[in-house]
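Appendix B. Raw example, untouched.
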Amino acid sequence: MMEKESYTHCLTRLVLVLLILLMIFVLATLLSAMLGPRVANLSSPAIIIAIIASLTALVVGILGPIVAIYTTNRQIKANVVSTSRMQWINSLRDSLAEALSICAYIATTPPKPIDNPGSPSDHRLPRDERLRFLASTISLMLDPNKGSHNQFLERVKAMVYSAGKALFSSDKAWSAETVTLAREINNVESLSKNILNDAWEIVKTE
């Protein structure tokens, strides 16, 4: 929608420039036609005025569309970058929210007896697989060249590792594992706010 409005605005400006160009050209032509029979040479002020008007119209006609096209391209590019960054923010936030939700469930839900651990009926496996998938998704969305992103990714991996240990732990070991998991959840929540806030600040300046 923003791209369409920007394009329409530039198109309107281009039309106005062309109309001004046409008016100048028409005035210059009329002036030349009216004064032509009475002009003796090119040094006549009337001829000079007509020439200046024509040259002005030519310059405006050349530069006007160029400036309009350049401005339109800049605005479209900025809108595309801003939209892509917003999509990145939303996707990362959704993946983080789901991962944190799964980890919070593991940290607050004591393990249930499992008849056949590791079998298809083991209810822990889908949750563990989903958590690992989300961790991989988050990893692929981060920039390895940014120190803050690398630090954040390390904390995400630590959280997933702690969640796995708590998920597959025995009743006796579960409480101890959840202490570590709760700490890692807090670390990820804190760092994720910084990552998302930094990205949002960039969007506001684009």
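End of appendix B.
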